[in-house]
Write a structure and sequence with these properties.
- The structure holds 2 protein chains of 2 kinds.
- Chain A is of the alpha/beta class.
- Helices cover about 40% and strands about 25% of the residues of chain A.
- Chain A folds into 2 domains: about 120 residues, Response regulator (Rossmann fold), CATH 3.40.50.2300; about 100 residues, Orthogonal Bundle (Arc Repressor Mutant, subunit A), CATH 1.10.10.
- Chain A is built from 8 helices and 14 strands.
- In chain A, the strands form 4 sheets. Chain A has a 5-stranded parallel β-sheet with strand order 2-1-3-6-7, sandwiched between helices. A 4-stranded antiparallel β-sheet of chain A has the order 8-9-10-11, with helices on one face.
- Helices cover about 55% and strands about 20% of the residues of chain B.
- In chain B, the strands form 3 sheets. In chain B, strands 6-8-9-11-10 form a 5-stranded mixed β-sheet. A 4-stranded antiparallel β-sheet of chain B has the order 1-4-3-2.
- The chains are: A alpha/beta, B alpha+beta.
- Chains A and B meet through helix 1, helix 7 and helix 8 of A and helix 5, helix 6, helix 7, helix 8 and helix 9 of B.
């Protein structure tokens, strides 16, 4: 899987590359508009991470370029401005998703995987993790072919951890992922403990191995 | 007291003083002038009598002459005396009473005998004249003062008009309302200078306010990138191994702190955006439906602490407002009701006519209603009041939630108030003026 990261902030770029590389992604870097434009013309990527404010141009213009060249790369727009205008403009110009700085790397990873899955495996989106199977289209989880009855939040939690498997996902990242847009309003993240407890109990009950580990109260890890 | 009346009062005082002073002054001056004239005439009369004495040759002739002229009295005298002039009163048969007179007394010699001659002149006409002159003068003075006051009053009203316009402009001037306040131009240099000075002051203030707002927004924006880098590095740090429990604990605290920073920054940005009027688009928002949605979203947070939410959202309140802001407004109130609640507590959210009322259990101490809507205000010393109270609510508070609520209310002319009723914290949001009148149509 090839990914192009267009980001002018060097340290942030390095962080993204470092986190995504372990997911077997091949990451290419473009620190400015000109480089990004060149690379987009020459190559095709599975997903492009696009920062809006670049030193030499507006990242959103690259979306136009892609459209004109009839390229079908998946695009996630990343903006420092938490403005709805930018979001709508980005999505109207054909971006697949939108993220606001600052974001969690685990969230970014999950979004990239979701975009790639949507584009490459239409219809057939199934995650298999040993005895655990997650049907992303039907939103059904089963252990050794017998379905496990999960609530919506528990399902989201499992998918998020599975997307970021073998990595520590901070509890703050999980809480923000689960509460979505209202995360900014409701700041209390106590609720994830009970969801986590229930999810673990249900999976264990269905005969699934104990893949989810708590890491010293700092976060969780799906170890496989 | 108005400036105009103040100046007029001084003028009036001075005029009255002069008026009162001039009356006796005039009286004495005119009187002395008149007396002087009478004296002169008496002297010349006496002189004329003396020069005409040659024509009188007998005692009888003299007696007859003095009898004819009532103003002359003759009586024999022993020795010649010096001419003297004096005032006196004497009986006047003509008016039947005492009258003021001026007399000159001297001696004449007729046929070798010395006589005392007194020539007198009535002063009653002089007094009448004096009276008339003073009356006329008084009338003139009164007219003069009255006229001056009237003209002054009349002119100054027009003259001071630009000043009062400028004053009203200053009273109406508000920093976050950029309305153009026109000044009244005047032919008076001072007022024009005043207008110019005030105009400059206004624009300088507006400019500074604008710069301050822009600064806050820019600062918040610029902060996003370092915060993002910091957060990404923390996440990478979490992936390192081996990781001891001690290190994990430290990373955990850093991660929580960074989340608070991010939230604080976002709240600041939101606050400035509201102040900068960047939420201009409006939709028709159904308050009950929006509240229901927010209650649904908040349930997972409430359930985590076993808080029960009662909703009674029946009234159909529709407002024209920005949907995002309305969500923030009600959401902030609701999240506060959860955050500052006690475990196993209760929240009630209900509509009443044009009001949305949110009640919650919490500390048994009322909040300071005049301060809770201020930025960065956090009620201290309350955490231990209720044993089961969760301290984290206070620790995680940005201190901006209710400030944002107040700003949104100010923007849409809603009113929000707080009361502590029967152990419950009650926030009442009155949505009376939400532009319901305009554009709802259907």
């Amino acid at each position: 899987m090839k990914i192009l990261i267009v980001e002018d902030e060097h340290q942030l770029l390095k962080s993204m590359v470092s986190y995504l590389r372990s997911e077997n992604f091949v990451c290419e870097e473009a620190p400015d508009y000109a480089t990004a434009r060149q690379k987009i013309e020459l190559f095709t990527y599975d997903c492009i991470l696009l920062d809006v404010s670049l030193p030499d141009g507006n990242g959103l213009l690259l979306l136009n370029e892609l459209k004109e060249n009839k390229k079908t790369d998946g695009v996630i727009v990343i903006s420092a401005k938490n403005s709805i205008g930018d979001k709508i403009q980005g999505l109207n110009l054909g971006a697949d998703d939108y993220l606001t700085k600052p974001f969690h790397l685990s969230e970014l990873n999950a979004r990239i995987l979701a975009v790639i899955r949507r584009r490459h495996f239409q219809g057939q989106q199934i995650l298999v993790l040993n005895e655990l199977t997650i049907d992303l289209t039907a939103k059904v989880v089963s252990v050794q072919r017998s379905p496990v009855d999960l609530t919506r939040k528990e399902y989201d939690l499992l998918v998020y951890l599975a997307y970021n498997k073998n990595r520590v996902v901070s509890k703050n990242a999980i809480a923000e992922h689960l509460s979505g847009d209202e995360a900014e309003i409701f700041g209390n993240y106590d609720f994830i403990y009970s969801h986590m407890k229930n999810l673990k109990k249900k999976l264990q009950h269905a005969g699934c191995g104990e893949y989810i580990r708590s890491i010293y109260g700092m976060g969780y890890k799906f170890d496989i | 007291m108005r400036l105009n009346n103040k100046t007029i009062r001084n003028y009036l005082f001075y005029s009255c003083l002069i008026f009162l002073l001039t009356i006796p002054l005039f009286y004495f001056a005119i009187r002395s002038v008149l007396l002087h004239a009478v004296d002169k005439s008496l002297k010349s009369q006496l002189k004329e009598i003396r020069s005409n004495l040659d024509g009188i040759h007998s005692q009888d002739e003299l007696a007859a002459w003095s009898r004819l002229d009532k103003d002359i009295q003759l009586e024999p005298a022993g020795a010649p005396i010096k001419d003297t002039i004096y005032s006196t009163t004497r009986y006047s048969p003509k008016h039947g009473g005492q009258e003021p007179y001026r007399e000159i007394a001297g001696t004449i010699t007729v046929e070798g005998r010395i006589y005392r001659l007194v020539v007198c002149s009535s002063l009653i006409e002089n007094d009448d004249l004096l009276g008339s002159i003073l009356l006329v003068q008084s009338i003139v003075l009164v007219m003069l003062i009255g006229g001056i006051l009237w003209i002054n009053q009349k002119i100054s009203k027009r003259l001071w008009q630009p000043f009062y316009v400028a004053l009203r402009n200053m009273q109406q001037f508000e920093l976050n309302k950029q309305t153009d306040l026109p000044f009244l131009s005047s032919t008076t240099d001072e007022f024009n200078e005043l207008n110019k000075a005030i105009g400059n002051l206004f624009s300088r203030n507006l400019e500074m306010f604008q710069q301050q707002k822009e600064f806050t927004e820019n600062a918040s924006h610029e902060m996003q990138t370092p915060l993002a880098i910091y957060q990404s590095k923390l996440e990478l740090l979490m992936q390192t191994s081996p990781l001891s429990e001690e290190q994990a604990g430290l990373i955990n605290v850093l991660d929580d702190t960074n989340r608070r920073l991010i939230k604080l920054n976002k709240s600041l940005l939101l606050l400035t955006r509201i102040e900068n009027n960047q939420y201009q688009s409006t939709d028709e928002v159904e308050i009950a439906a929006l509240s229901k949605k927010l209650v649904r979203q908040s349930r997972i947070h409430a359930e985590a602490r076993n808080i029960t939410i009662y909703e009674e959202l029946n009234a159909a309140i529709r407002v024209r407002a920005n949907r995002v802001l309305m969500e923030v407004l009600i959401g902030n109130l609701l999240s506060n009701a959860i955050r500052y609640n006690i475990d196993n507590g209760v929240i009630s959210i209900r509509t009443d006519r044009n009001m949305l009322i949110i009640e919650n259990t919490g500390t048994y101490v009322p909040l300071q209603s005049d301060k809770i809507f201020n930025r960065f205000y956090k009620q201290a010393g309350q955490m231990s009041v209720q044993g089961r109270m969760d301290n984290r609510g206070y620790e995680e508070s940005s201190g901006l939630g209710l400030a944002i609520v107040r700003n949104i209310c100010t923007l849409y002319h809603y009113t929000i108030d707080y009361a502590f009723i029967e152990g419950r914290h009650v926030f009442r949001l009155d949505l009376h003026d939400g532009g319901i009148r305009q554009g709802t149509g259907s």
